Amino acid sequence: MHNYSELKIWQEARKLVKEVYSLTAGFPKEEMYGLTSQIRRAVVSIPSNIAEGTGRSSDKEFQRFLDYAIGSLFELETQIILSNDLNFISAENYETVCLDIKSLIRMIVKFKGVLVV
Length: 117
Hints:
Layout: H1 8-24, H2 35-54, H3 59-85, H4 91-112
């Protein structure tokens, strides 16, 4: 078992949550129950899955929850791309968030001990 709050991947996921919540605060109000909600659920699930995985009884189960976190990162990236397509975010914010997403994916993959191809 790991103490999730000491894991760098969990700490970085928390930072991403704050970044994305701040970003989506500027979305159109009519998106509150649409894309804003979807994005926020996806980003919150990342540190949540990392934390939940640490409480599992085996490393194999922990890795499964890390896979869920990676899946949520890809989901989030898709939603950020769509937000950019819809002009809800600036090009600068789009680039920043996408870089942070890709960085966290690499960190989690490395943590799992898998080579990035």
